[in-house]
Amino acid sequence: MMWSEFRAGEAPSKGVYGDAPGMRIYTRADGSRDSRCRWRLCAAPGLIAGGSAFRHPFDDITALLPELADRAVVVYCQKGKKISQGTVSLLRGYGIHAESLQGGHFAWRDAGEMLVPAARIPAPGPQGGSVWVTRHRPKIDRMACPWLIRRFVDPAARFLFVAPGEVLAVAEKFDATPFDVEDVFWSHRGEYCTFDTMIEEFGLTSDTLRQLALVVRGADTDRNDLAPQCAGLLAASLGLSRIYRDDHQQIDAGMLLYDAFYRWARDASDESHDWPQPQSRG
């Protein structure tokens, strides 16, 4: 049969995975492809950045059939050979649209794609995702960081927004990871903001994220001279904070805002717009 394979950098955005003697599977609900895949609780020192994933042995794949129904999946093992290809064929036999990641984890690593250090990802909470806590009424950093975590590290992550003086106490009581407050690991470092810290510590060193980080840093630290887009991000963020009284609703709305800024940084930063439009000559 013809094998339909993803190459490194093309894995879809949602999925599940396993580890030897198992497999890793990625699922996607919308058919889109991008370079975001996340590896959680994996024995490998570097976990592929982005997406959603969980461990499952290849010899018990039928237990996942209800969850994988109506989804497309991408399977991978270390080298993209016997385990992933056998699993793909088995899934297709059950009517699941399955593909494999060409070359597996090794190909992703060798292609220089983003890998998140497993030790940096907080342990999941009772609901399955990591739990983070910060000050209430988010503006820039406290919107940018949840976007980064959910898009590239842990899409199931939960965020608690509390009074500034209660962040550390809530972190202790709820076993949450504090961020963007003073004297914690995930915070500002010198002239760099918490978003910069997360990009560095999670190993998310793509050109696109570095460009976005410059905009976030300028908007968050009142240095709009760093990039022309800083003032626009600040204005949009302040507008969202006025529209929403509920911090969680504001974060949900901010996800689309940062998706748009990410796509601009990825493939539209050299585009401009003017009026009137140039007239074509015929």
Can you offer a commentary on this structure?
It is a single chain. With 282 residues, the protein is α/β, with parallel strands linked by helices. The chain has helices at residues 65-68, 82-93, 104-110, 141-152, 167-173, 194-201, 207-220, 229-243, 247-267, and strands at 5-6, 16-17, 24-28, 46-48, 72-76, 97-101, 115-117, 131-135, 158-162, 177-178. It folds into 2 domains: 5-116, Rhodanese-like domain (Oxidized Rhodanese, domain 1, 3-Layer(aba) Sandwich), CATH 3.40.250; 122-267, no CATH class. Helices cover 35% and strands 13% of the residues. The strands form 3 sheets. The chain has a 5-stranded mixed β-sheet with strand order 1-6-5-3-2, covered by helices on one side. Strands 9-8-10 form a 3-stranded parallel β-sheet, covered by helices on one side. A hairpin with a 6-residue loop joins strand 2 and strand 3. The chain is globular and about 55 Å long.
Topology:
Layout: E1 5-6, E2 16-17, E3 24-28, E4 46-48, H1 65-68, E5 72-76, H2 82-93, E6 97-101, H3 104-110, E7 115-117, E8 131-135, H4 141-152, E9 158-162, H5 167-173, E10 177-178, H6 194-201, H7 207-220, H8 229-243, H9 247-267
Helix pairs in contact: 4-6, 4-9, 7-8, 7-9, 8-9
Return the domain count: 2
Q: Structural class of the secondary structure composition?
A: alpha/beta
Terminal CA distance reads: 50 Å
Major sheet: 5 strands, mixed
Give the count of helical stretches.
9
Silhouette: globular
User: Mean pLDDT, rounded to whole units?
Assistant: 82
| Helix and strand pattern | EEEEHEHEHEEHEHEHHHH
- Give a count of the beta strands, DSSP E runs of length 2 or more: 10
- Please state the CA-atom Rg, rounded to the nearest Å: 20 Å
Give the low-confidence spans: 1-43
Helix content: 25-40%
Give the neighbour order of strands across the main sheet.
1-6-5-3-2
Could you tell me the strand content as a percent range? 5-15%
